[in-house]
## 1
Amino acid sequence: MHCIRRITDDLAWVGANDRRLAMFEGVYSVPYGVSYNSYLLTDEKTVLFDTVDKAVRQRFLENLSEALGKRMLDYLVVQHMEPDHSAALMDLLDRYPSMTIVCNSKTLGFIKQFFNADIDSRVKIVKEGDRLEIGKHILNFIMAPMVHWPEVMVTYESTDKILFSADAFGSFGALNGALFADEVDFDRDYMDETRRYYTNIVGKYGTQTQAVLEKTSAFDINMICPLHGFVWRQKLQDIIGKYMLWSSYTPEESGVMIAYASVYGNTENAAEILACRLRDKGIRTTMFDVSVIPASEVVAAAFKWSHLVFASTTYNAGIFVTMEALINDLTSHNIQNRSVAIIENGSWAATSGGLIRDKLAKCKDITFISDVLSIKSSLKESQMTEMDALVDALAASFPTLPTSTDNTVSRPVEIDKDTLRKISYGLFVLSAKEGSKDNGCIINTVTQVANRPLSVAIAVNKANFTHDMVMRTGEFNISILAESTPFNIFERFGYSCGKDCDKFAGYADSSRTANDIRYLPEFTNAVVSAKVTEAIDCGSHSLFIADVTQAFTLSDEPSVTYQYYFDHIKPKPGLPKGAKKGFVCKICAYVYEGDVLPDDYICPLCKHGAEDFEPL
Ligand code: FEO
């Protein structure tokens, strides 16, 4: 019986799970199973992205047949020829006689190596940057060599902005009914398996992975569909950020991973003492007995932690078997950019430490923290000074926060809100569109937060109607105001509520960006369009993190700062005629008439509280 999940109106998951596989690729245990993902895109033409492993072939064929209904399959895009994704290729050629295989020339060579079939007449060869229109959907092909095999390519569907990412962004673990990463507690339940998958399968090819990340960063991506594991439709930056770290061999966590190989427990004892002493110094530790923990887990941990300690007994005048396998595994996965310490044990001729060091010394950017700590059979009290020296050397290699000195003076706790006015701010028109409603407001907090992906953060007062529109639609424009902006622009967008009026009424220019949201072409030196990836509740305001989708410059005029606005644009406040006493809002110049300003008073224009008023 078929078992499919719909991703969009046009896209269905037709893959399958395998929970009986003992060893993935014959090497990696998969205690939680594995999914083989295949996706059917339905348009004027029908397109399938990859097939599955032979173990789940039957279920996959049923799924595909159900998802196609009465239609035929027009295209099979082969992004990766490894047999866990191509085992059903010949079945499809037989079942769908008009189907064309879309692949690159290297893939075609691999198809001929794996199968005996004359398929040239049924193949469409694509190369970097080629496009294939299948109706309203357009497929863009991007070569991704060595992520994980040389023929790998990924596909960007530019209408719905979906990246079919082949092995990239995949994970071990069956899907268990969930298909989207946001349907599960991903960090708690799947991040470790995702790291283990990347580091062991693709970890050696960090440079190539970085190249693909760079190429795909040019695209606006709404969804990532990998060949294993979950589909990403929210918080894409979470997984992309991890890939940035892993592929650049940057540690995720500061702390010490201790891997040890011990025959009778004495090397283990030394490793435990080291771990305890490091903890005494507040340094995080994790430990692996490499004789019982699969190497793939230790490799994954080595990619995670900043400091690595290897403790091994000597065996057959060399490194203990399981430790030697681990060290070979790590070097072949290109481990680099780590601080390393080594403990060796040997009852008569200890050699393991030096041999481990020689192997790791060939890796890039490995810093050895100290000389090898060599023990004979077991650690003795007389060697505790050496152990302490190792602990101190490791501790000293962690960055330390500056500590206060005796001659510093502690200020009493106080919060002077005017202090925050020393922070430099700009002034911007934030605009949004919901249905046919255009709206905008003035905000003062916009900042770029990352280069890759190019992203910004904006803070918006929840009392603004534009805030609610951005929250609901997930898109906005920022018009960066210039120094020539007249006060009436601030009045128009800052002194009324979009719920009650059309803030663009009478505004002559109706320019819109590609997201169909209005912007201010006048008095604006640049415009940024962005799509929200995360909204953080900060109390009075929401902080929106958003990927930049469009950005252009309109003039070289300086941007208006908050200070410039106060000094040169905002009219000087004065009491209305006949009024005796009043308070002026320091933010927008609204004047409250009266002898006493209520503590809970909220400015009707800019929504700031009584603390932002001063007596006139
Ligand atoms: Fe899941 Fe490289 O294949």
## 2
Amino acid sequence: MKKVGLLATGSYTPERKLTNSDLEKMVDTTDEWITTRTGIKERRIAADNEYSSDMAAKAARDCLGKVNLRPDLLISSTATAERACPYQASIVANRLNLTNLGAFDLNAACSGLVYSLAVAKSMIQTGPYRNILITASEKMSMLTDYTDRASCILFGDGAAALMLSSEQPEHEILATELGLDATGSDYVIMGGREDYYFRQDGRKVFKFAVTIMGEMIDRLLLKSGASKNDDFYIIPHQANYRILESAARESKLPQDRFICYIDHYGNTSSASIGLALDEAEKEGRFKKGDLVLLIGFGGGLSWAGAAIRW
Ligand code: UT7
């Protein structure tokens, strides 16, 4: 089987910041409540005329600037595309003058980036593809009800990009896992005709997230031939800092194994793992040989995991 590596990452976040003190002026909330219940301090918000595809294209440009490769396939993860057609991958390819490639969108809510990574890995291993570009971009502000204090404090906008390749299989993707518990499909809802704005059963999603994180850590370690005593880091979907605290407690792992940037980006749905990965990479948080576990979870209720040898 061909080895597939994660060759480069890229990211983009809008300039505008929405802080907890801004939200205190918009709804009945406090910085203290938001910080203790979620760990979020601020989020980025796209301009009215800045769409998910614009952010995806900027993250993709950042990623492509780091590698001397042209993608032969583009997968765009998004649940917040501004149009059904042209779909997001088509807009991004056009913006970046990418030609001679296949392209499609993938929506698996907050698990979308890791779902895309698993699909891309197997398409490289079984198909004619060599270099696959993934974007994960979300304009969550578009689907956020800024009169609902339970949800408007959670979300931010942003985009990330990853380049997978079999040509230079550095940072090898060792294993992936995909899953869905469709009995919880109505626990997270957004973008419908009647329920346009984001709504969730927060407590049920919280419990699900903690359980699935524990299971994914065990399964990804097993599939990678590693154990809890090895050096490894977890980059989970950045939904709530308390989810990471509970997952660390239940998995009996130190908190510093969990990489978290939720304080300054909030929940950016499928972009969140890519943003955290790009930031962690820039800060040099991983050394060669470390195992990095990406764990997505969210609407669906979906989950997805990937183990990468750094
Ligand atoms: O990315 C998609 C996946 N989503 C997730 O992973 C989210 C998982 N869930 C969560 O992160 C948490 O459930 C939330 C952060 C969404 C909510 O935290 P919670 O501890 O479950 O709070 P709650 O919804 O049970 O609300 C507790 C109290 C309520 O008041 P009462 O009924 O106890 O009087 C709410 O009305 O807090 C109140 N509340 C607020 N108070 C101040 C809810 N939102 C706010 C707010 N400011 N913004």
